[in-house]
Amino acid sequence: MGKVVEMNHPLIKHKLTFIRDKNTGSKEFRELVKEVAMLMAYEVTRDLPLRDIEIETPITKTKSEVISGKKLGIIPILRAGLGMVDGMLSILPAAKVGHVGLYRDPETLEPVEYYCKLPTDVEERELIVLDPMLATGGSAKAAINFLKDRGATNIKLVCLIAAPEGIKVIEEAHPDVDIYVAAIDEKLNDHAYIVPGLGDAGDRLFGTK
Ligand code: PRP
Ligand code: URA
Predict the structure, then answer these.
(1) Where does 5-phospho-alpha-D-ribose 1-diphosphate bind (predicted)?
(2) 42 FRET partner, CA 20 to 30 A, in 34, 90, 156, 164?
């Protein structure tokens, strides 16, 4: 079973409070989502392998560590996942970015794919899937299925807020995938929105509706 890592950091908790607040407008919402994604990049990359290289400081020659091993890919689930890309890229500038377009059908609540463009060497990369909301888990489960169908074997899922229901769905469908969340909320409501949540992440990011 993959691990579930809930962020336990005062900066993330503080910023998440204002992300949740319905009086926070789109500009500030976008900035805060970007900042939390940047902070989460620190935790998500904690187990990246290192190797020694030789360098010369102004004082002496020495060995020092650099990141080695797998190349990274950042995969936002459109649309709302886009809000987390810049924050991740500010810490991981060499990562390639692939996009998976999914929306949740409001009637059936089932995810519908409308776009998929990935780095060509997706099977060689460690992929970080981004979506602010893990509600029923249907969208993230489908996105991870698409990535696996295209050869990906090393996948992490990064969300701002998750419902316990969504976590269970990913754990059952993709037990190899570690999940990183800023917060795990109480439940889903009758419309499959996360409670207390933050509302509709895509609409709040892009000022729609
Ligand atoms: C939202 C959210 C997730 C999905 C979560 O996207 O960004 O992708 O719902 O719900 P689930 O876990 O029940 O699948 P939405 O379908 O509203 O599309 P959008 O990002 O284009 O707004
Ligand atoms: N999608 C959202 O944007 N918010 C929710 O609470 C659930 C799904």
Answers:
(1) 79, 104, 131-139, 200
(2) 164
Sequence-distant (6+) residues with CB within 8 A of 175 are: 1, 2
Task: State residue 149's pLDDT score.
Answer: 93
Answer whether 192 contacts ligand 1 (Cβ < 6 A): yes
Correct CATH for 4-206 of 3.40.50.2020, 3.30.420.40, 1.10.10.10, 1.20.120.1220: 3.40.50.2020
Query: Where in the chain are the domains?
Result: 4-206
Model confidence at 10: pLDDT above 80: yes
Whether the complex's predicted ipTM is more than 0.95 is answered with yes
* pLDDT at residue 190 greater than cutoff 90: yes
Å from CA of 105 to ligand 2 middle: 12
For the entire predicted model, the pTM comes to: 0.95
Give nearest CA residue, ligand 2 atom 3. Answer: 200
Above 90 in pLDDT, residue 63?
A: yes
Enclosing H/E stretch for 206 = helix 201-206
Q: Which ligand is closest in space to the CA of residue 77?
A: 1
Confidence at residue 130, expressed as pLDDT on a 0 to 100 scale:
98
